[in-house]
Automatic annotation (TrEMBL):
Entry keyword annotation includes Protein biosynthesis: yes
Keyword RNA-binding (UniProt): no
Similarity remark: Belongs to the elongation factor P family.
Protein source organism: Desulfurobacterium atlanticum
Record keywords, A-Z: Cytoplasm, Elongation factor, Protein biosynthesis
Protein name as it appears in the record: Elongation factor P
Source organism, top-level taxon: Bacteria
Pfam families the record matches: EFP, EFP_N, Elong-fact-P_C
GO terms of biological process kind: peptide biosynthetic process
SUPFAM superfamilies: Nucleic acid-binding proteins, Translation proteins SH3-like domain
GO molecular-function terms, A-Z: translation elongation factor activity
Length: 189
């Protein structure tokens, strides 16, 4: 396995720490007046989603994770696994439901996502930054009701509930940020 010096780290890099895959979320190089320089690194566990902060002295070596991301198409889920297909090889793989977690709220059949593999095993998925979803249930909006600050709950086609402005109606399409779950804008389809 390849290793790198603490000075070579960058945001988004995948590391293996204590046999677990982590992604560097943020880091800061610190050079104190006295003592040795060090790096304070914020890491996200790619299996659990937990974020931890670790400190490493300059000169220490970090292990790069045996990590791969492949674009795949979402097919279906059977309650235990979410199934994806590689569009080049037509190979189908299952990602455990607990590893997909809340990301399932924004996952539609035939959507393309990045499936994350650690040591050849599928461990999670990475959604696109935004998705367009159809509103299937919400209270009706009223003509002239365009106040921007007032929000109402709307259920989208995946079953997720998103807070939307009052002028959004059933049957309309909205763009949603997959990281925050927030409404971004109405989309004409």
């Amino acid at each position: 396995m390849a290793s790198i010096d603490v000075n070579q780290i960058s945001k988004g890099m995948k590391l293996e720490i204590n046999g677990e895959p982590y992604e560097i979320v943020d880091y800061q190089h610190v050079k104190p007046g006295k003592g040795q320089a060090f790096a304070r690194i914020k890491l996200k566990n790619l299996k659990t989603g937990n974020v931890v902060e670790k400190t490493y002295k300059v000169g220490e070596k970090l292990e790069l994770a045996d990590f791969e991301e492949r674009e795949m198409e979402y097919l279906y889920n059977d309650g235990t696994f979410f199934y994806f297909m590689d569009t080049k090889t037509y190979e189908q793989i299952g990602v455990p439901s607990e590893n997909v977690g809340d990301k399932a709220n924004f996952l539609k059949e035939n959507d393309s996502v990045q499936v994350q593999f650690y040591k050849g095993e599928p461990i999670s998925i990475k959604l696109p930054k935004t998705v367009v979803l159809k509103v299937i249930e919400t209270e009706p909006g009223f003509k002239g009701d365009t106040v921007n600050n007032v929000l109402k709950p709307a259920t989208v086609e995946t079953g997720a509930v998103v807070q939307v402005p009052t002028f959004i109606n059933v049957g309309e399409y909205i763009k949603v940020d997959t990281e925050t779950g927030k409404y971004l804008e109405r989309v004409n389809k």
